[in-house]
Design a protein that fits this description.
CATH superfamily: MFS general substrate transporter like domains
Number of strands: 5
Oligomer: single chain
CATH class: Mainly Alpha
Number of domains: 1
CATH topology: Growth Hormone, Chain: A
Length: 504
Amino acid sequence: MSDAKHACDSDDLDLENLVVFSADDEMVDLIPREGEVRKRKVDNGLDDNSWNVSPEKLFERTTKKQKIWKDILVLSTAFMVNFSAFAGLQSLQSSINCIEGLGFASLITIYVSLIVSGLVLPGVLIRFLGVKWTIASCMSCYVVYTLANLSPQWYTFIPASMLNGLAAAPLWTSESTYIGANAYIFKEVSDSETLDAILGKFFGTFSAIYHMAGVVGNIISGTVYTKLLNRNQSHYEEPGKVYTCGASDCRINEGNVTTYCNPPPQNVTDVLIVIYAALGVTAVLLVSFLLDKLPTEKEKIRDKPVLSATVSTISLWKDYRLWMLVPIIMSGGLRMGVLTGDFNESYVTCGIGVEYVGYISLSSSIIVVITAYISGRLTQYIGRLSQFAFGMTLDFGLIMVMLLWIPDDRVALYFFLAAGWGVTDALIYVQVRSFIGALFPEHLEAAFANFYLWNAAGAAVSFSMSLIFCVSTKLYILMGVQLLALILYALLEYLYYKQKKINR
């Protein structure tokens, strides 16, 4: 003790070489050297990386962060513009192409093709084109599908639907790979945020902007049909006919009892298609000229054999964690099939008219955008499970309303149901995708390929059931799948955090 006191009193104390140890056992010089930037603890208790690097390095990291955010915003905007056309058309297919079930057949073809594509094409295209040009090429296929709606015949419309479906899996796999890779790059230059938080922010931002597609697309369709259709063209009921609307709609045509089918004039729909095609072309140009390529080392799939991505996708089936996620992934496709197909045809169009489809879908899209943005930011504060559980609980309530309610002229109720579906869709979509990014950091391509494969499987099953079962049967099936999904998801979250605690 006296030695220590003597040292402190000494005039010969070498302050420049005096060191102490911080609470986290890091050696810290007491006196900064010239030109040195010091490290400190920020209020949140995490290292602020800007305090242990040179000014030049700090500027480089800041620039890299800004570039990453720019690319996330460009990618999100391009997807929003592209899917403004596709989402609008998808919502309308069961109404504008209801004759002989062509609209449902188109949607079934898209999602079955997506399943096949998900097993083969993502790896092949990304290997030869890279992530950026895979996105641009696949968006071009969406433009072809949009233009096919100008003359929707079986021999033209179904092949165009198949092309769209084949392009969908590489497109979405590339998007998820691009965002996931940028999240890891961002983490390399930022010590102040966890990977989970970054993934939540990136996917939340993408989801919020992307889901604006529903806003834009549905405003366009609602405006076109409202301005160009008269009442008899939008909701004509043949005298003497009894139409089966709502949960009781079994799409039968027996005597005077029939399902509702009254498509708008083709010349009116053509105006809408031309606008949608222009949006698709704009999306392709955004990606081509404004989106930066990923660093070569981040496009790991390009260094692998042609079918390695297919093998990786299937190999991931050996991981029990994926199978625990399959019910919730498929339920997203089932829910989408009910909302865009059955709800729009058997409730909205049958109850109040096709011109309301766009506006009611718009309310859902607006809620999705707001909820997705908030959900991504809330992940680091309240976690995923609580948001997920709330979304599922709301979903069950909405299904019960649809089962019990016979569609009438109370327009506000249609908007309420659509908005509710928007909340559940956003919460589940954001949280499941961010969870996948955290669960499979070394297998992002395969994990997201499986996500879109099983989501497409759910959609294909849902649209197929629309041609076989009554709407009520589909709603009961959806409720059962989601109950199973909630149980398995909660268990997997528990196992994930338990393993995370062990690894610390």
